[in-house]
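Q: My labmate handed me this sequence with no annotations at all. I'd like to see what the chain might look like in three dimensions before we decide whether it's worth expressing. Could you predict it?
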Amino acid sequence: MVSESGSASWRAFFAELRKWGFVEGRNLVIDRYAAESGHHIPKGLSDLLAGEPEAIVAESSTWVRGINAIRPDIPLVALVADPLGEDVASSLAKPGRNITGVATDTGASLLGKQLELLLELAPGRRRVACIGSTWPHTAMRTLWRDAQTRGVSVQEYLVHSQFRHGDARAHYVNAFPAMLRDGVDAGLVLADPEHVLHADAIAALSLEHRLPVISPFRSLTEAGGLASYGANRTDLEHRRAEYVARILNGAKAEHLPLQQPTKFEFLINLKTANALGLTIPPALLIRADEVIE
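A: Here is what I predict for the chain of 293 residues:
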């Protein structure tokens, strides 16, 4: 976890915990750990696990699988893109493994909508890179078929996440020229939470290489990406905090189904569109939940 005064999504998380009666420093103790470049699991995590926490909040399938393998007895409340495809859970209704939480992705339907919006924002594109982290996206087969009907080809590019050895940003720096060499003329960032940590780098690289990019993350659009369409992160954090509160009140994680997004938001960065030489149709601007100027 990060501090209560951190990002908007974490502020939403802590606000929901307060509604359930849990306030840090009063009746709640929180230990915070963050990944460091070159470490699969952050340093000091063994000390945390030895302290017998009542629940662990984690993001990304890499952390979830790694922590659960070490201490499967500790309830784990996750935020992951694709729980089934990333081998986090056996099913959404009965996740098992003492794991529960929320997903950021709804699979093929979300990817299809993002591709549709990307092609409206940047018409004439014919080769779209789908930027993943380290795990193949299970909805890609459906997206390939959808793209074919639109006269577009899509290709998944897996970028090593911060859990690999070396400088994480360097993996993105290397990926963009490789995509351009393959003739890519637009990008779709997949819903892997790891990308949020590198939103600034992705946005800067997309502008540097003049590649219009859509993602599911508000933070990436705020950082300079062209647009985002995805789950409302505030809503997801409210639901994740509710699960933490219910576990602290005695609920079993394996009895809490993994939840999928139900609220979505569409953002356009008009400043980025102008920098890329794109003219956004007025009808699309009206459909946006927010336009960043």
